[in-house]
Design a protein that fits this description.
The protein has 614 residues and is an alpha/beta fold. It folds into two domains: 238 residues, Glutamine Phosphoribosylpyrophosphate, subunit 1, domain 1 (4-Layer Sandwich); 347 residues, 3-Layer(aba) Sandwich (Rossmann fold). It is 36% helix and 23% strand. The protein has 19 helices and 27 strands. The strands form five sheets. An eight-stranded antiparallel β-sheet has the order 3-2-4-1-10-9-11-15. It has a seven-stranded antiparallel β-sheet with strand order 5-6-7-8-12-13-14. Strands 19-18-20-21-22 form a five-stranded parallel β-sheet, sandwiched between helices. Helix 1 runs antiparallel to helix 2, helix 4 packs across helix 5 and helix 8 runs parallel beside helix 13. The protein is globular, with a radius of gyration of 25 Å. The structure holds 6-O-phosphono-alpha-D-glucopyranose. The site of 6-O-phosphono-alpha-D-glucopyranose has 16 residues, from helix 9.
Length: 614
């Protein structure tokens, strides 16, 4: 993930910018840069590779400016060259950016027609040109940024400095994190408190849609509508450690909120944003065309990610998929044919059952691909090839961001398989990739439902059982929602395929049992009528006095007019990406129920983050 820092100081800031960037190295990067104001002129130093390359450059060509921004870039749009490294700048403004500007292509085209000359292939550079255009129209830097932010679509964080403005730095947050640091006579911006720990422990986290006008004297924070707002200043504990909770009460909350950023980051690793094609960052030791059957195994939440992937692989690549809970796979004597593919999914990379299954698959001459979050883990080391999830450290025992990152990786793998097996056309691939690129923005919209979900969660605290229903890829999301609730709130919950309602669980329904229905309106022609079938299931629940919580989109909300239904409405999106986005409300529902019940959210009783015994 890209890292952002900004300093308005009293002495030369370049060295401090680099120090702060070093603390963001853990996020991963492949080039870096800083910009400062040298006698009012924006001046940059950028270098490909690690920070020592930038340091060497600064030694050769020092900067003395007392205001500056810095960046570690993790390439998304364009290769990790010096030219593409941030900051990007015109003669008027310099900008650093983390995240994805979804509509950069249209903006770039429009700006190009008006004569803008681009020096890089990045999406970021359009931001510098948009601000410049607005300033050329006579707007102040603050008004130019306000006008620019309105034109950008995506999930991102930005920091700006301006030519001739020694006392102005602007930061903006929409989806990706950004914090303001308070020093004495100095002010800071940073991707997290860890970056700013050497300078200050007084931090205000910007909320989604906020932007901050920073001067030596302090900061004015405005919300998405331009209204002045106050954000609490908290004392950060980041100084001694590299992982902290930010302004969240629990790691789990922080990890739920990180999802637009880490999923964006993971997608950027697997997608060429410029061509809108899947581009795997790994060399596969097999050809998808020669695979006859795919076996997936995993445990817990990772298993549910695999279950979603089964639908994707079958739909996009026409590969027959078998999926097993890892502890079952190796003992059920499944015939495996040499040269087929086995995929193992694990956040920790250490889960004993998953590892045992992997070894069994290897003995049976399967190609072994693992989707893991911990790169040096045993599962990673023993696999033929590793497809990493870039979720960053996950501390909460109940998995959240690792799950959605696993989905992001698995979806890209399924698309790659579909393309190589000739099932997906170029156009199909592009449509799917576009849908994936928009996912972080939809995830940010899902997070904005939190106040509503928190209120809803309080009504679940005295329930003994909760049922979760879904069809298609929403079925694994229902299973995951039920798992999250039982793991951390200790309320019994079950996930069911909605079609199975009549084959058992309907016997349990009465007015004390809430039923969470996960049902985006499915637009795909082959699954016509699926949504209506789910609405029938809701009718069956309502007829027995059951209380329904429906998670859907605007069309679904209009069509499902069943009594005693509370609706959580997410944005309209491509059906393929719904599991990534619909995971968020079920995570939040479990989280807030657990908080209301005052359980140990990050370390629930009896559970372990990494289960290393069979
Ligand atoms: C434990 C954790 C779960 C996790 C599962 C699989 O049960 O509490 O959150 O989903 O293990 O772990 P893995 O590290 O293999 O994904």
């Amino acid at each position: 993930m890209c890292g952002i820092v900004g300093i308005i100081g009293r002495k030369a800031v370049a060295g401090h910018l680099v120090d702060a960037l070093k603390r963001l190295e853990y996020r991963g990067y492949d080039s870096a840069g800083v910009a400062t104001l040298e006698k009012g002129t924006l001046t940059r130093r950028r270098a490909e590779g690690k920070l020592r390359a930038l340091e060497a450059k600064l030694e050769r060509e020092p900067l003395s400016g007392q205001i500056g921004i810095g960046h570690t870039r993790w390439a998304t749009h364009g290769r990790p060259t010096e030219r593409n490294a941030h900051p990007h700048a015109t003669e008027k403004v310099a900008v650093v950016h983390n995240g994805i500007i979804e509509n950069f292509r249209e903006l770039r085209e429009k700006l190009g027609k008006n004569g803008a000359k681009f020096g890089s292939e990045t999406d970021t550079e359009v931001v510098a040109h948009l601000v410049t255009d607005e300033m050329k129209k006579g707007k102040s830097p603050i008004d130019a940024v306000a006008a620019t932010l309105k034109q950008l679509r995506g999930a991102f964080a930005l920091a700006f400095i301006f030519a001739g403005e020694e006392d102005l730095m602007i930061g903006a947050r929409k989806g990706s994190p950004l914090a303001v640091g308070y020093g004495s006579g100095e002010m800071y911006l940073g991707s997290d408190a860890i970056a700013l720990a050497p300078f200050t422990d007084l931090i205000a986290y910007l909320e989604d849609g906020d932007w901050a006008i920073v001067t030596h004297a302090g900061v004015e924070i405005r919300d998405v509508n331009g209204h002045k707002v106050e954000r609490p200043i908290i004392k950060s504990s980041a100084s001694s450690q590299m992982v902290d909770k930010g302004n969240h009460k629990h790691f789990m909350a922080k990890e739920i909120h990180e999802q637009p950023e880490v999923v964006g980051h993971t997608l950027a690793h697997y997608i060429d944003m410029t061509t809108e094609r899947v581009q795997l960052p790994i060399d596969l030791p097999f050809d998808w065309k020669n695979i006859k059957r795919l076996s997936i195994s995993a445990c817990g939440t990772a298993f549910y990610a695999g279950l979603v992937a089964k639908y994707w692989f079958e739909r996009f690549s026409h590969l027959p998929v078998e999926i097993d809970i890892a502890s079952e796979f190796r003992y059920r004597e499944a015939p495996l044919f040499a040269g087929d593919l086995a995929i193992f999914i694990s956040q920790s990379g250490e889960t004993a059952d998953t590892l045992a299954s992997l070894r069994y698959a290897k003995e049976n001459k399967q190609h072994v691909l693992s989707v893991v979050n911990v790169p040096m883990s045993t599962i990673a080391r023993e696999s033929d090839v590793v497809a990493p999830t870039l979720a960053g450290p996950e501390i909460g025992v109940a998995s959240t961001k690792a799950f959605t990152c696993q989905l992001a990786v698995l979806c890209c793998l399924a698309v790659a398989a579909g393309r190589s097996r000739g099932v997906l056309s170029d156009q199909d691939e592009q449509n799917l990739v576009r849908a994936l690129i928009e996912t972080p923005r939809h995830m940010a919209a899902a997070l904005s439902l939190e106040p509503q979900i928190e209120a809803l969660a309080r009504t679940l605290t005295n329930c003994h059982d909760v049922l979760y229903l879904g069809r298609g890829t929403s079925y694994p999301v229902a299973l995951e929602g039920a798992l999250k609730l039982k793991e951390i709130s200790y309320i019994h919950a079950e996930g069911y395929a909605a079609g199975e309602l009549k084959h058992g669980p309907i016997a349990l329904i009465d007015e004390t049992m809430p039923v969470v229905v996960i049902a985006p309106y499915d637009k795909s022609p082959r699954r016509e009528g699926v949504f209506e079938k789910t609405v029938s299931n809701m009718q069956e629940v309502a007829a027995r006095g059951g209380r329904i919580i429906l998670i859907t989109d605007p069309k679904g909300a209009r069509e499902a007019t069943v009594e005693s239904t509370l609706v959580l409405t997410l944005p309209d999106m491509a059906t393929t990406v719904t599991p990534l986005v619909y995971a968020i409300p079920v995570q939040l529902l479990a989280y807030h129920t657990a908080v209301a019940l005052n359980t140990d959210v990050d370390q629930p009783r009896n559970l372990a983050k990494s289960v290393t015994v069979e």
